[in-house]
Amino acid sequence: RIHDYLTLHLLSCPRHYIRKKFAGLIKTAIDCLEKLEGLESDVLDTFIARYLALISRELADNNKYSEEYFGVLYHYSKLSGHTARHLRSRNFVGLFSNFLIGTSVTPTNGSSDL
What we know:
The protein has helices spanning 2-11, 16-37, 42-57, 67-77, 81-89, 92-101. Helix content is 68%, strand content 0%. Helix 1 packs across helix 3 (42-57) and helix 2 (16-37) runs parallel beside helix 4. It is mainly α. The chain is built from six helices and no strands.
């Protein structure tokens, strides 16, 4: 399962070098998908949905290693206005706010273009 690999290599790994390199691989994969399939890619959409689900499931327990996790989201959000809207439609702002204050909320599958 994808979140198991993400958790293992991006959130719970105590070695900064491994987390940083794994985050770099994810950023490269996102860039390649964007170039090959465009930002409307179903693969990219599915990945982002599962990636955001980690906020509720795994990030609270591994928050001391969250720098690279949020770095990937930052990278994705800066690709275009579409990607920033995509994160908003997936309730990233709510997820992040709840992460910061310590409550749980689930990502949405909404397609709102806020």
